[in-house]
Specification:
Elements lengths: L19 H29 L35 H23 L17 H17 L8 H17 L41
Helix pairs in contact: 2-3, 3-4
């Protein structure tokens, strides 16, 4: 009679033993498959999402943000209505915009008929006009301004502002007319009126 094992005899087969090394390899393979599945899920999610905007050459226009809305306290938006730390903070932000975008893109050559002042922040008229120009810039690059927003900004705001600032009789008339010789001087303006305004047919006494 044969001594070979008979499966029908009801004897349980010996269990298959997995070494610790094989178990470690199996665990590593499972972790790798999980990581791959998660990465594929992330790729599918990114493909389903909206594509990122294509960066345009030139200055990073988006760095200058959108128009800041006045807070609930009714804080002023125009720099000439600010004072103290609020004025200084707004002037710093305006200076960044002038130095990083306005002058590199729209500065043009300094000549006797188109002066410029490196110390423009000491000219109140220049600060007021440039801040108004910056506010308009923020408004017209907002998506709600539509595709014609930048063109409107150039036509209605930039051209007029730069023509006024750099006119031969503008606020920089006594400042730099040659880049090799920087200059700055404030021209005196009209004195504030302290006497009553004369009525028609009357003149002020000498």
């Amino acid at each position: 009679m044969s001594d070979s094992h008979d499966p029908a005899a009801g004897e349980a087969p010996e269990p298959v033993r997995i070494t610790d090394l094989d178990l470690a390899d199996l665990s590593a393979s499972v972790r790798k498959l999980i990581d791959q599945s998660q990465e594929q899920a992330r790729v599918l999610d990114s493909l389903a999402a909206d594509p990122p905007p294509i960066p345009l050459p030139g200055p990073d226009f988006t760095a200058f943000g959108a128009v800041p809305a006045p807070s609930g306290g009714g804080e002023p938006l125009f720099i000439m209505a600010m004072e103290g730390q609020a004025y200084e903070a707004e002037l710093d932000a305006l200076t960044d915009w002038v130095d990083d975008l306005l002058l590199p893109v729209y500065g043009r050559e300094i000549t006797s008929s188109a002066p410029w002042c490196p110390w423009w922040d000491q000219h109140p008229e220049a600060v007021a006009r440039l801040h108004a120009l910056w506010l308009a810039w923020q408004q017209h690059i907002d998506p709600e301004a539509g595709p014609s927003g930048p063109a409107t900004w150039h036509r209605d705001h930039l051209d007029h502002t730069m023509a006024q600032l750099r006119a031969p009789n503008g606020p920089f008339a006594a400042c730099t007319t040659n880049p090799a010789r920087p200059a700055h001087r404030l021209l005196p303006g009209p004195k504030p009126t302290t006497d009553p305004v004369p009525t028609a047919g009357h003149t002020l006494a000498a």
